[in-house]
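@channel anyone free to eyeball this complex?
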Amino acid sequence: MSLSALRVAIIVFPGSNCDRDMMVAIERLAGRRPALVWHKETSLDPVDLAIIPGGFSYGDYLRCGALAARSPIMEAVLDHAARGGAVMGICNGFQVLLEAGLLPGVLVENAGLKYVCRNTCIEVVGGTDSPFTAGLAPGHRMIIPVAHNEGNYFAGDEDLQRLEDNGQIAFRYVDSDIVGPANPNGAARDIAGIVSANGRVMGMMPHPERAISAELGSADGATMLTASLEALIS
Amino acid sequence: MSDIMTAPHQDPAMTFENAASMGLSREEWDLILTRLGRTPNLCELGIFSAMWSEHCSYKSSKKWLKTLPTEGPQVIQGPGENAGAVDIGDGLAAIFKIESHNHPSFIEPYQGAATGVGGILRDVFTMGARPVALLNALRFGAADHEKTRHLLSGVVSGIGGYGNCIGIPTIGGEVNFDASYNGNILVNAMAIGLANSDRIFRSAATGPGNPVIYVGAKTGRDGIHGATMASAEFSDETESKRPTVQVGDPFTGKLLMEACLELMASDSVLAIQDMGAAGLTSSSVEMASKGGLGMEMDLDLVPAREDGMSAYELMLSESQERMLMVLKPDATDTARQIFEKWDLDFMPIGKVTETGRLVLLKDGDVACDIPLAPLVDDAPEYDRPQAEMAKRPTLASADITDGRPVTEVLAELLGSVDLASRRWIYEQYDSQVMADTIAPPGGDAGLVRIHGSRRGLAASTDCTPRYVEADPRTGGAQAVAESWRNLSAIGARGLAITNNLNFGNPERPEILTQMAQSVLGMGDAARALDTPVVSGNVSLYNETDGSAILPCPVIGMVGTIEDIGAAVGMAPTAGMALVVIGQTAETDDGWLGVSLYARNLAGSPDAAPPPVDLQAERRNGLFVQQQIADGLITAAHDISDGGLAVAVAEMCIAGRIGAQVALPDGGNRHGWAFGEDQARYIVATSDAGALLAEAKAAGVPAAAIGSTRDAGELQFGDENAISLEDLSNLVEATIPALMSGG
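replying in thread with the prediction:
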């Protein structure tokens, strides 16, 4: 089946600012423009993938993602996930998925106590059973930028070990010749992205939608997104 | 109600003492009495004071600003609107402006810088443009000054705090340090937006009876009389002005931007003006006066954050994220729905009138009733005296140079705070949101793709204050030339400029000379390079306890490149020839007067700065642009602070590649390596012969000076080589060490 058959929705909160970028990326890769769904909506048409984009939903007031996780549309996203629907959260979207309880752990302020925007090198972790990693070889490395102030993934040791054992760690920061430490934010076990126990919900801090052509500095985000879309259609 | 002959009775009548406390002179006070034919009340006086402040009236700079070229086939909108607009082809306009937030940023660095970014973004989207890029130009005090770390840290996080949240990439800027900014930092923010060239919105009110609408955030007591504060010198008492600093809310800014752009896509808006400096005062006065009309507003209808705000407070508040609009009468409902969708206040507060007066109602009474013409047309314009400046001598290189190896001096310069990597700063800015950034900060110019096309929009901000101080006219021209070079070095052609004139107290003749002469120099360069001035901002009185800053007339240049795929960066690959454009093979010395070398290593001897040959700048720049487009140049870097050796080293560091550079026989090695002669570039090419032949044909001086090589070392002549890793560590370590207190 062609990728253009895939139904993708991007949830837009007040303060989302990567919604257009993700829409452009998915449209280019899949050949079909995703639906943009406003946060005040209470239902979600049947979709194959719901994406929570990056940005500063509700101005990051209270805690990053906390208010968005309680907005009307999230009931519908939770129902979609409960039915085994695929959900991807990028950056602030990852924070929203944690606040909504779809993924375990928290994202706290970067270890450097500063916002950080730069390229990172992330590696696909083996043993993950998820459409978001299925098309990528374990150990495959990708250059994808981060841009966040709260991307420092944290969970208790037992929870981290459970993530490891269950194959829920999807992407890790790894050393490369990029200037600066491999791990840009101090995340536990160099975690850049994780998946839910059933592999259908994925959150990651790096922005694949910003790395969709060599002219933008890297096309590895296109590789990653295309692999996910192909896994979801098959 | 326009025949009231006594002051509206709500407020006590004012005296000259009240006027003086708001920064007005005796002459200005007398002029107000004459024009009104009576004594103003507090609200009215506040309005006069704000409109006649240096910040709003340009009373000391207007005479000189009028000399700048502001027209050209590319200009759609020159100075006088919220921002300038130039035609960039394909039915699109680039809309841009730079603006200072110096005083607030010194008092409250995070909020001062954040609201500087918010304000300049509003100026751009008010015109109907979606902002696509931010830049800035920052000046801090000496690196070891006790306040520098705190101010730098706060300003950078404030700029990031606003730009990152609202989701506009910061693609460039400049940051420099000098003790003259110890008590008065400079924070200039620039924004660029894109609009359809036939859908540009302006501020002139039209149609008496049409509704005047207030939208955005509520009005509070923050920033009251900020425009007047920005027009006064600093003193020890400035700290007590903290409450006059505005507080920014980028989240509301984002909602306001989306709501305004959504509304502007419909056919509803007749005129729109953001509430920036002097808030509701300047927005209403400018809209009404530009339309040759009047305005009446009921201040009780203004959405207020606090109870009991007076007319004076409501009119002078500089609360952020607010706009004033005149709508088509039948469009009010459509507009209201859009603002309600975005959870923003939307309130009709008045109407356009034919009276030529500003009439304000409060608590059922007339709180203000003044004619608009004097506020705008009679705003004072001063022809202040200049001082004679002695011409500075030309410095001989031998007077300040010694026989140390080039790499030893190079290491010293590159490790200084002046040339160190700005990575610590720009990594705090989201440079990639909107997914169109081709050249992020760290290179000569920033470059974003024009969304959905192959074309690119390039921009750079520049000024070398020490040149301006030494010779204002040359320094003013140099700032434009350096911006032009920065764009040329990535392959882009400069189209137009915006300027931010940061100077001390213009009532002092030597300061006025700096401003007047540098503006003349800027005009010379703008004419020679076909880059007219389309917008700008003036920030005077940048002094603390009588001590002025180094003059800093910042240029922000915007240009285009036809194919982003042809743009180059400064990183060469191995096996490339390095060619200097703009000087000959016979050159064996350079201009060290007022160079970074002279400042940092020789105690800044009295000297003239490098001359600026504008015809050479134009010719060499056009040549570099063409050779980049043709693919003969694969990497390029403009030669500026630190000269040729620094430019080569920066290219090597960027490309993680070594180089061998030949030194001239005889002459002055340090002059040749560190001289700051203008109109020059270092470029990398795989075919030096072809490039030199093209240069010769174009009448452009050029010389092959070396080549890149795989070995990780940079070597000049037969001197000791320096490891690239050492150089790289040196430039990367300085700012982080400064910021960690090391």
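from a first look: The mean pLDDT of chain A is 96.
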